[in-house]
Amino acid sequence: MVKHTTLIVCRDWNINILQTSPYMRELNNLLLRYNLKYIVNVPTRITQTTATPLDVVITKEKKSTNSLKVRDLGLSDHYAQILSIPLSDFSKIPHRTNKRQFSEANVQEFLYLLNQVAWQEIYVESDVNAKFSTFMDLFLHCHNNALPIKTVYVRDTIKNNWITQGIKISSKKMRLLDNQRKTTVMKKKDVEYTEQYRKISRRVLQETKRRENNNHISSAKNKSKAA
Predict the structure, then answer these.
(1) Which of 31-40, 41-50, 112-121 has the highest mean pLDDT?
(2) Which tens digit of pLDDT belongs to each residue from 134-177?
(3) What are the start-end ranges of the E strands in 60-197?
(4) Which of 22, 110, 195, 223 is disulfide-compatible with 146, CB 3.0–4.6 A?
(5) Are the beta carbons of 148 and 101 closer than 8 angstroms?
(6) Do the bridges between strand 80-83 and strand 68-71 make them parallel or antiparallel, or are there none, so unpaired?
(7) Do 97 and 152 form a contact (C-beta atoms < 8 A)?
(8) Which is nearest to 53 in space by CA: 32, 72, 34, 79?
């Protein structure tokens, strides 16, 4: 294990850590071997008949014990675990990176240089590999001269554009329905409504994430085409 690092393991272990079992003894032995511990000691999945802490956060950070919160976000039948660990704010520290300049003037210069290339040099070569090498030399000459690489300073930002206002409202309503289901005896039609609403919320989340992933892929492809 690398020194001076923060190790955090999060997942649904499907082991009830509050219940003695052979699986729990094996897990405890494994954690003791590496000086690790689980810090979720409350149920993370609650139904009408069960309350089990299946979702475990494991770490070696002693400071993390009092910074864990379990919240029902209404997005799943499992509760969310929120772990706060103090870290340096690197997002506000600019770092250098190399970027190619795709200004309108540079693109027009690139197109102009391409029109000036003597492409006949490619046909002089008889070997296909030599043809390709000549083509790349001519192309990159235009590319590097018209679209120069410049070192710039940037700041990292994290955006969650897929979490829309509608998803937030749906999540809030799902939390209210879950709380009502756990604290009161609901009628059959109310239980059916809650389950139907949960299914619809999950489909909306999956579709929203799928569209967001497709947008990222499409954006990457467009950048590749532009290059």
Answers:
(1) 112-121
(2) 999 998 888 888 888 888 777 665 556 667 777 788 888 888 88
(3) 68-71, 80-83, 95-100, 149-154
(4) 110
(5) yes
(6) antiparallel
(7) yes
(8) 79
Tokens describing residue 198: 């949960």
Q: Tokens in use for 74?
A: 């209404």
Task: Give, in order, the Cα–Cα distances in Å from 173 to each of 43, 98, 168, 179.
Answer: 21, 46, 9, 10
Which phi and psi angles does 157 have, rounded to 5°? Answer: -130, 145
Confidence bin at 184 (pLDDT 50/70/90): confident
Token digits of residue 54: 């299946």
pTM above 0.70, yes or no: no
Residues 100 and 107: their CA atoms lie apart, in Å, by: 11
Whether the predicted pLDDT of 108 surpasses 80: yes
Select from 148, 146, 150, 147 the least CA-distant residue to 96. 150
